[in-house]
Write a structure and sequence with these properties.
By secondary structure, this protein is an alpha+beta fold. Helix content is 48%, strand content 27%. It has helices at residues 3-16, 43-63, 102-127; strands spanning 20-27, 32-36, 71-76, 79-86, 90-97.
């Protein structure tokens, strides 16, 4: 897998959207693939929690006939955490401070998610 390409995508998103503080990409089972996080964040723990949360959100979307889950956002008193599905097998986590414009984030992530999916798909194709 091209970890440098993943790092560039995560860094590019951070540069594009003001307020992003941390990013990570994980497999749907919660295993960390890549992270650009502060030392105060445990990237493996973040990946596991994000996978669990995204799994519940996916099940909720299916059970309520809302279609395929695209994202979920958790808001806290110091910012938010956005969890995005990357295809069926991975996810991206974006943490932001209270000043981050979530609508800008959602718009900016779409091309990034497609590129990350391509990077991960290339990895899977190489393993075949």
């Amino acid at each position: 897998m091209d970890h440098q390409a993943l790092a560039l995508e995560m860094r590019g998103l951070r540069e594009q959207v003001t307020g992003i503080t941390d990013t990570a990409v994980a497999a749907a089972d919660g295993l960390l693939i890549a992270a650009d996080t502060a030392d105060s964040i445990d990237p493996e723990g973040l990946a596991a929690l994000a996978a669990a949360g995204l799994g519940l959100a996916r099940r909720t979307a299916q059970a309520t006939a809302r279609g395929t889950l695209r994202r979920t956002v958790t808001y806290g008193s110091h910012g938010c955490a956005a969890f995005y599905a990357v295809g069926d097998t991975a996810l991206m986590v974006v943490l932001g401070d209270e000043g981050m414009d979530v609508d800008d984030l959602h718009r900016a992530t779409q091309p990034t998610l497609r590129r990350i999916d391509s990077i991960l798909t290339e990895k899977a194709a190489e393993g075949v």
